[in-house]
Each structure stands twice: as structure tokens, then as C-alpha cells.
């Protein structure tokens, strides 16, 4: 797996400087504005008694024009609903309230279950409370805080979720000895915690980022202190995948995703990312998505369109950031993967005028300098970044699941369809589908998202279901969803799926080629809300497929035999066909060509003419494409397709000759034998032939059911080239000879005493011949092994030719290397057989030409060195190419490499023994190669080799050479420092010479003594030391 570094995606910068501001304890001083809403154009008036319609209108006539009675209360008939001019509701209500006989009057106010948390700093959380922004408060009126059955996994730097002693292996990563729970997370339920940075089950936050992200997801809410979270009743699964510095490897992130998947997470929040496309992490995302988990990831903070992961994976919701004014934040990435926007903040501005920078406010560590000081406690921080935007979306998904909106595909479709469009109309690369609208995502509106078939679809299959997809769970009672389909196929049945958001309507089959109109007339959500509208056309229209044509007959039929070679192919269909040439295609193998078409019988029959078939040939015909006159492709065939047939036989064929074409050394008395593929007419007049030259005396004998003809004759002439041709022949049925599957005419040469060249390597025209390949010549008989009798030329000439015979019939010609990519021409001029006959002819091209291989250079596969009893053994192996020369270099105790010899080794060498080494010294080796192009390359070094010192043994070597003639070498070894005496005596015991008498060091000593003046004879050499004495025999000769 590629090693990728993933970092959290939070910006802490207030300006271009260092830290974001801390929020100190302060009381809100500015009251929050409240929007008053009522139904446009309506007021309610409560009279003191029941009035009929005329009385009502008369009573309010003086209030103003355009007043109408809409309806009367069923419970309190004195109360009526009046229509008034839009925009004048408060004015008209105020006037009515002053009328006599009126108890009360007011606009028709809109009421809802409203709830705002009482947290101290909630008023600073503009990302929650801003009007017409993400509609969180309206969403809380639908689902307040989610459900404890929903689990949101936080893959981050950990979470400050428990009181826990800092383990020893984490003490260098934080300041302090105890992890503490953030006070504002005390009411959160945490499940299945795990730390993939330290491989333990305590993912405590070492940075502060993960705690801030978790606060947006599920901070303690409505507890009279601090700030609020979105899905505060959902459970949180803290998973640490980023270290104390805020980074990690893809391995940990993939493990974190897998952990969440296997521990029942419903949502995964990943406020992290990087720019490496990690296939392992991607597979983890795929597995989680397929398991039904919704994944959300930050888009990145680099203001770039570059792919960013995991947010760019198709399975992950890519969350970008907007600031207070709903503009894309200056840092937020964008591009084709952008999906949903959420508040991420901009610490550079104060657009809401609350005298605080417009960041996302949550609780985390008081001291965020790394490593964090655990003992400094907690405070509230404004952060900015797509990291802050992401948990808004993940928490909204938690609310959606709690509300019964399930399935990753359905949830994403709902987010897309309910988002507040920003930027250009529709989805765009800067804002994706727009800003998340939590109220609508929770079913604030009931919308038809998609239909299948879609509006305008054609070629709809007759049994295709009608599938309707909604943005929220629907009431499955058939009376709550009604529709019409015209014309109506009938037989309708219903099946709900995907959490009752998808309705599949089965029916009796549609009719071929018919236009249908389907209209969803009513539908209600599971909470009783009626259908508000549709993102796709409703009603929608589609057209069914036309009837598919079938092939019902062929002529010839499948398996037909003995078909005339000029027979047409006739295809018959069950309905009229499109006669356009491109709409009917076929193959015929083998293909006779020359095809033409003729349609008949109301364009149901096509006749295909062609050039004549071959005789006695098996054909396969395949109809590959055809369309009806309505444009519907072929539906199938009631007869075999492809179909096979065989044409009639034409005539006999000559299938074998003996001798074969090109045969040599044919005995002069050998018969000519002809073999046919069937029984033949044996009448001599039916079979004629020619032989040049003609030996005469021909006789005939038929055998093997009259398929084999043996032609005897007077003896051929030695060493003669004959050409035999069969001119005419008839089968037993009287069909003339159609041809031959072997050469006709054919040539052969009779036996002769002269040698013939029958094979060359390389063959004539061969390419890519290795530059070191031998030239090989093969003769038809044993040859004289004297290579001096062979004469040849080679142009250009590589030189260095060495000739070797094998089996006396094959001659190998070695040479210096050919040149790379060079054309050569070789010609054999002379060679002599064992019988002394000179080469005169060749059955293969002579001269012959070939081209050598391209230059690939020398590639070393292995180079090593190891100690041995005799020194250091250097060995090597090449994987490509072969040098023409090799030199070995040696380095002593890390010194510069030096050549060990000047002439070098042959190119085929693979080993060198360095005997000139000493114990206790480190040696390294290099290899220098020279190729045929003159290119020199050096490889190495090997690992160092050091010989262990050997224990010294007192010894006197045998003098050499023996017999000595002028000079002799007398070598000995001393195991310790001391006095040594080396003396030469004759056999009478007389001292002839004292060669050494001195104090010597331990080790080997080599003495060279000139004995030119010493008479020939046998002498004794004696070595004396404190170790004892040794004697060896010395022979001096002339």
C-alpha cells in the first residue's frame, strides 16, 4: 500500500497570524430578532354571534375592499376565515377588531413546535441559529437531537471522552498525566472506542481537533452552559486515526473505517484528508458504503480543484465550507467532486456583527500548543475549515436516520434534492448541490425525486415496473398514494423498499409500441405530510418497445449437405423488416463475397446472392443484426442461428506425392507414388502426367481402394533434378482433378556422390540473430572432417573463425561477435565429402542473408564475493547481453579500486579467484565490462570480504624447483619471533652454505638462493629454531 499522510482539515488562523481567539465567559447582550410568520392574504375574525355569509360581508364592508368569506369554524361557528389583499393582513385585522360585534381579529399566524437550546453561547453559534441558513432549528422541530440507536463514528485525533491515566507510551505526546473528559461531552454516550495510533481501546484526544469536531456532532445541549451540538442524542464512536501532531498514514484511516463498519456505525465523519489516491482506503470506503454506512469527509482547505481523498471517492459525501454570507470560504476546495456545503467559517471577518470572528464555536482543550497541556482544562474555540463543515453534514445524516430516512443512496439523493441552491442554477463545481437544508432533509417537504421510466423514455420493456423514489419515508397505505396511467394495463401491485422511500409498481404487461402517461395524483409521508412537489416531470410520458422480429426459416437449413455452389441464402422473418442495408448484417465463414439482397413477401423474406461457394466446403452463416420496420432489433430465432451447411464436392484432389517436393538423394530405382483424397478412375487415359527428363518404361499399379497410384519406370539418372507434373485425373464419379494440397508439379534430385547443403542456421532472411551465434551448415551426407577443405565468405567479415564438425554432417563456424543491427551475407564456396566429392549444389539459399539483433547493452543480475580456502572468490551473472571483455577491480580497506590485471577476462567468464589477499584485510570488488560496441560499464562494489588470520605452524617447505638449475626457493614459516638458522649440507654432512642466521619475526619467509656454482647432486636443507629443527631434500642438476 502506498504510504500516504493524512492531516486534519482545520484552520486555526484568525488572520495571517498565529492562533484563533479564545472565547472568554461572557453574557449575551444583544437579543435575538424573532420573525413573525402568518398565512398570506388571510385573517381570522371571531364574532359575538353566528352570522350568515351576507351578514359577515356586510359587517366588514367598511374595513376595506376585496374581502371574502373563505370558511367557517366547524367547532365555533362564530369564528370565520376571511380573504384579504396580501400584505395588508395586520391592517385589516386591526380594523376588524374595532368593529361592533367582534370579539377578536388577527392575521392567520403560522405556529409550529419551536425549540431553541438554552446554552449560554448558543447565540454565538451563527452556523446553527442564522435565519434561512441551514434550517437547524426548524429541523429540531422535526427531530430534536436524533436517537440513541444511531451511532456516528468520529475518525480523528481522538476525543476527550473519559478520565484515564496517560499510558507510558503516550507520555511524550502530551503534557500531564491524566486525560480528562470535556465538560460539554459529559452527557454523550460513547461506544466502541479504539485508538489505531497506539493500538489500544482508549482514543483520547491528543490534539484538540477531534474534540471540537465531536462537539458539533453531539455536544451537550440545552444544559444552560456552553454551546450546542446538532445530533446530541446520537451515540458517538471515537476512533483515533490521527496522531498528536494531527497526521497519520492511510493504513490507520482504512483500519478506522473498517472498525466503524464492523462495530455498527451508521455514519462516519472524516474531517481529514490528503491528495494521495490510496486504493486500500478506497476499498475500505466501498465496503462501508456497501454495508449501508453513510460516509462524509472534508473537501480540503487548499482552494484547489485537485482530487482530495477520501472526499473524492464516489462513496463519500464531499463537504465544502461556506462562511456567514453563504459564499464559499476562501480556503475550501472545489471541483467535480463537490457535493454539499455546510458552515465552515472565516476567522478573517465578523459578518454577523457579534464582535467575534466568524468561526465555528465548540469546546476543546484550553491550551492547543503542541503537545497539548491536559492540565490546562477546556475552553471554547472558534475554528474554521472544511473539518468544521463536515460534522454539520454527518450530524444531519444522524438526524435523518433517526427520522427513518435510511440507505446511503437515498440519504445522498435527499441531501442533494433538498439543499439550498447556491451559485449557478443546479449542481456546480463550486457549491455542489448547495447548502445543506436540515429541515427539508428531514422531510420538511415531501418530494418525488425520480421516476423510472423517466419522462420521454422510449423502448420501455412491456414488463418494466414503474418505480417512484421519494425524499422521505412514505405512508404505504394504498389509499394514501394514488395515480393514473393512460392507457391502463391493469393488474397493479405495490412493493415498498429502501425504508419506504421507493415504490415499485408492477402491472399486467404494457402493449407494444404504445405511448403511456403516468400521473402521481396524491401521496403522503409516513408523518402524514402531503406531496409538496416533484423534482422530475409529473405526469410523465413514455413509450413502450415495439415487437421484436424473429428469424423463422433459413434456406439452406442447418446441417444441409451437397448444396449447389451457386445456391442463394434465403432468410424468412415473422414480421416486416427494415430493408436498409446497415440494419441487417451477417457473416459467412468462409466468405464467398459478392453479396446482393432482394426483399419480397412484404419485406419478410430476404434473398442473399453471392459469388459461388467453394466445392465441398463447410460454411457457417450467422445473422448478426436485423431490425423490424419499427426499428426494433432482432428478438431471437426459432431456427438455428448460426446455421451450417456443406457445398457439393467438385473434383478429386492430389494430397500426397512420394518423392516429396524438394526431396534429395532419391534412389534411382524409386517409384513415383501419387495419393488422392478419393477413389479414382483407373483408366490410363483418365490420368496423364509429365516427367522431365523422362526415364521411360512407365507402368501403373492402383491400391488402397484406387486412391493410391504407384508409377514404376526405368532407373533415373544419378544426380539429376527431375520435375514431375500430374496433368489430368478423374475421380471414380468422373469429376476432373480440382487441384492439389501438395506441390504439383514437384521436383526432386536423385542420389549422387556429390554433397548437398540442406540446411543453414541462420536461415536465409532471418532477423534478430544473436551477435554470438555460430553459423551452422548441415549436409546430406558425412563430410571430410578436415576444416581446411571448407571455403566460404561472409560480408562483412567478423573474423576469428573457428570451424568444428559434429557427426561429420554438421559444421559449426564460430567467430568474433557480429555487429549489432547489421545485415550479413554468407556463402559456402566449397566443402568435401568423406568420399572426396566437392560440394556442388544446395537445397537451401546459398548465399544466404540475415540481420543481427538490436543492441541491448549489458545488464548485471548478480555480483558477489566470498572467502575461500585459496583466497577471495568473485562471481557474477548477467541478465541481459554478454560483454566481450571483463576486468576485475579491488579495493583494500576502503581505498580506491584498482585493476587486478591489465589484459582482462573473456566475456563469458563468470568467476575470478583473487589469490593475492592477506588475512585480516577488508576487500571489495568491482566489475568493468566492455561490450561489442565498445561501451565500458562499471558495476559494484560487492560487500566487504575479510579473511580470518590463520594460525602459524612451524614448517619448512619443499624447495622448488627440483632439480634446481641456477636458483632455488627455500620457504619456511615461524610461529613466533626468534632466531632462525637455515643451512645447506651435502650428504657427507659438510656445510655448503648458511642462508639465514638471524632474529626473525613470526610469519612466512621466502628465501631465494643462487646455486649456479654448486655441483650437481643431492643436498640437505636444515632449519633450526627454538621450536626445533626441520630437514628437506634438495636436488641440484644441470
UniProtKB/TrEMBL annotation:
GO terms for cellular component: extracellular region
SUPFAM superfamilies: Subtilisin-like
Secretion signal, residue range per the UniProt entry: 1-20
Domain SbsA Ig-like intervals: 449-544, 547-646, 650-750
Residues at the catalytic site: 156 (charge relay system), 209 (charge relay system), 387 (charge relay system)
Ranges of residues in domain Secretion system C-terminal sorting: 960-1036
One GO BP annotation of this record: proteolysis
Subcellular location: Secreted
Family: Belongs to the peptidase S8 family.
Record-given protein name: Peptidase S8/S53 domain-containing protein
Organism encoding this protein: Candidatus Coatesbacteria bacterium RBG_13_66_14
